[in-house]
C-alpha cells in the first residue's frame, strides 16, 4: 500500500494529466483494486482530469480554423460551377444596386444608445442576497435607487474583498460606470467578462458593450457584437436585430 | 514534399505553432484526402480522419510517446488508413480492397495508437456532456474544479448557503456521470 502523501501526489499528477498513458491506466486500476473506488467515482475523476485540460479542445479548434481557411469551400465544385456563380453574382449585384437606388436611405441620425439603453433592473438569477455578500447586496440596492456613485463604491469594495471574479459585481460595476459616463472603464470591465470562461451574464455584458460602442461611434465593433447577440437568440436578440437593420 | 525531423514535429506540436500546423496541414492533407476519396469516402470524412490523426499525434507528443522513425507522410498515412478502415468497418464497407497511395514509402508501416485514440474519444465525450448540462450545473462544476470554495460559490452565484451548493454540486455530478455511463460511444470504447 502506498503512503498517503504519495497517493495525493499521484492523484494530483493524474488530474493534471501529467502521467503517461501506462501510468494513467495503472493508477486507475490501482484505484479500483486497492481503494475499491466505484465506477462512478472513477468517471468523475476522469471528468475532473479532462475538464482541467482545455489544450486538446483548443488544438482541435485550431485544426478546424486551418481547414476552413484553406479548404473551406471545395475548389473543384467552385471550378465546375464558376459560370453559374458568375451569373448569380451579377444578378445579386444588379439586385443590390436597385435596392440601394429605390429604397429610402437609413436614418443617419438614429441614436441606438439613447433609444435602447436602460439601466438593468432585473439581474435574472439573483434570489435573496446571500448573507456573506452584504456589500454586493448594498451595491445592487444603491444601483436600483439610481445612487450610482454609492453603488460603484460598494461593488468596488466587494470586488477588492477576494471576490474579484464575481460576475454579478463586475457587471454591475460596469453598469455604474456607464451611468457615471466612464465609458472607457465600462468597456474594459465588460470585455473582461466576455473573455472569462464563465457563461453567466455574458449576454447582458455583450448587450451593454454593443450599446457603448454605438455611443462611441465604433460601429464595426458594435455590429460584430450585435450579430453574435442575434445569432445566440437570447433575451436581446430582437433588439439587436432591430439596431442592425438601422445602422 | 518536405521531410520533417522528429524534433521539428515535437516542437511544432508542443508549441501549438500555427505556422507549422498550417504548413503541415497543407502538405499532408491532400494525400489523405485522395486516399479517403479513393476508398468510398467524402471530403468531410477525409477532414475528420486527418484531424483525428493529428489529434492522436498531438496526444503522443504530449505524453512523450512520439518517435518518428519513418517519413511523416508514412506515419500519418498509417494512422489515417487505420482510422478510415475502422470507419469503413462501422459502415460495413470493409470488404472492398483498400486502394493504397502510390506516394507512401512503406504502406505496411504500423504504429500503435489505440490508447491515444481512446483517450481522445473519452475526452470529447466528457466535454460534450459537460456542455449539455444546465447553465447552473456547468458553472458550479467549473468553479468547483477551479478550487473555488463552496462558500464563495454560494456568494458568487447567490445561493442561500454552502449546503445548497454542496447539494447542487452532488446532483450535477450525478447527472453528468449518468449521462456519460449511458453514452453509446463510451460503452463502445470501454468494450475495446
Summarize this structure as a short list of keywords or feature phrases.
heterodimer; A: 247 residues; mainly alpha; Serine Threonine Protein Phosphatase 5, Tetratricopeptide repeat; 0% strand; flat; B: 192 residues; Rna Polymerase Sigma Factor, Chain: A; 9 helices; elongated
Question: Can you summarize this structure?
Answer:
The complex is a heterodimer of chains A (247) and B (192). With 247 residues, chain A is mainly α.
Overview of this structure, please?
The complex is a heterodimer of chains A (247) and B (192). Chain A folds into three domains: 4-55, no CATH class; 73-103; 112-246, Tetratricopeptide repeat domain (Serine Threonine Protein Phosphatase 5, Tetratricopeptide repeat), CATH 1.25.40. The longest helix of chain A has 21 residues, at 82-102. The model of chain A is unreliable at 73-80 (pLDDT under 50). Chain A has helices at 4-15, 21-35, 39-51, 55-71, 75-80, 82-102, 112-116, 134-144, 148-160, 167-179, 183-195, 202-215, 219-232, 237-246. By secondary structure, chain A is mainly α. In chain A, helix 10 packs antiparallel against helix 11 (183-195). Chain B is mainly alpha-helical and 192 residues long. Chain B has two domains: 6-112, Rna Polymerase Sigma Factor, Chain: A; 128-191, no CATH class. Helix content of chain B is 70%, strand content 0%. Chain B is built from nine helices and no strands. Chain B has helices at 6-14, 18-38, 43-62, 72-90, 114-131, 135-145, 150-157, 162-181, 184-191. Chain B is elongated. The mean pLDDT of chain B is 90. Chains A and B meet through helix 3 and helix 4 of A and helix 2, helix 3, helix 5, helix 6 and helix 7 of B.
Amino acid at each position: 500500500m502506498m503512503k498517503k502523501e504519495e497517493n495525493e501526489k499521484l492523484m494530483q499528477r493524474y488530474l493534471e494529466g501529467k502521467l503517461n498513458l501506462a501510468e494513467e491506466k495503472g493508477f486507475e486500476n490501482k484505484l479500483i483494486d486497492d481503494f475499491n473506488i466505484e465506477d462512478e467515482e472513477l468517471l468523475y475523476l476522469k471528468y475532473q482530469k479532462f475538464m482541467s485540460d482545455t489544450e486538446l479542445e483548443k488544438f482541435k479548434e485550431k485544426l478546424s480554423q486551418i481547414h476552413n481557411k484553406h479548404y473551406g469551400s471545395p475548389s473543384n465544385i467552385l471550378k465546375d460551377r464558376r459560370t453559374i456563380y458568375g451569373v448569380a453574382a451579377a444578378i445579386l449585384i444588379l439586385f443590390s444596386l436597385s435596392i440601394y437606388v429605390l429604397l429610402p436611405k437609413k436614418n443617419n441620425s438614429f441614436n441606438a444608445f439613447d433609444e435602447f439603453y436602460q439601466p438593468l433592473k432585473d439581474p435574472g438569477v439573483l434570489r435573496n442576497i446571500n448573507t456573506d455578500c452584504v456589500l454586493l447586496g448594498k451595491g445592487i440596492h444603491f444601483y436600483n435607487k439610481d445612487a450610482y456613485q454609492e453603488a460603484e463604491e460598494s461593488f468596488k469594495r466587494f470586488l477588492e474583498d477576494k471576490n474579484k471574479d464575481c460576475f454579478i459585481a463586475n457587471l454591475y460595476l460596469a453598469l455604474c460606470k456607464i451611468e457615471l459616463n466612464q465609458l472607457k472603464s465600462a468597456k474594459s470591465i465588460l470585455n473582461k467578462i466576455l473573455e472569462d470562461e464563465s457563461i453567466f451574464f455574458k449576454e447582458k455584458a455583450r448587450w451593454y458593450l454593443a450599446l457603448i460602442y454605438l455611443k462611441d461611434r465604433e460601429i464595426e465593433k458594435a455590429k460584430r457584437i450585435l450579430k453574435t447577440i442575434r445569432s445566440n437568440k437570447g433575451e436581446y436578440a430582437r433588439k439587436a436585430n432591430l439596431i442592425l437593420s438601422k445602422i | 514534399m518536405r521531410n520533417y525531423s522528429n524534433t521539428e514535429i515535437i516542437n511544432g506540436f508542443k508549441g501549438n505553432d500555427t505556422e507549422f500546423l498550417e504548413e503541415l496541414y497543407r502538405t499532408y492533407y491532400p494525400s489523405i484526402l485522395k486516399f479517403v476519396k479513393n476508398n468510398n469516402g467524402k471530403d468531410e470524412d477525409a477532414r475528420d480522419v486527418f484531424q483525428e490523426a493529428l489529434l492522436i499525434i498531438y496526444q503522443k507528443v504530449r505524453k512523450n510517446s512520439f518517435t518518428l522513425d519513418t517519413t511523416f507522410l508514412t506515419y500519418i498515412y498509417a494512422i489515417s488508413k487505420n482510422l478510415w478502415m475502422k470507419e469503413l468497418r462501422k459502415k460495413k464497407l470493409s470488404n472492398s480492397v483498400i486502394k493504397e497511395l502510390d506516394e507512401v514509402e512503406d504502406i505496411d508501416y504500423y504504429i500503435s495508437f489505440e490508447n491515444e485514440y481512446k483517450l481522445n474519444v473519452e475526452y470529447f465525450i466528457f466535454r460534450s456532456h459537460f456542455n449539455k448540462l444546465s447553465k447552473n450545473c456547468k458553472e458550479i462544476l467549473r468553479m468547483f474544479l477551479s478550487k473555488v470554495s463552496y462558500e464563495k460559490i454560494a456568494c458568487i452565484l447567490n445561493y442561500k448557503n454552502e449546503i445548497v451548493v454542496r447539494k447542487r454540486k452532488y446532483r450535477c455530478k450525478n447527472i453528468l456521470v449518468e449521462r456519460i455511463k449511458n453514452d453509446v460511444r463510451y460503452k463502445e470504447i470501454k468494450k475495446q
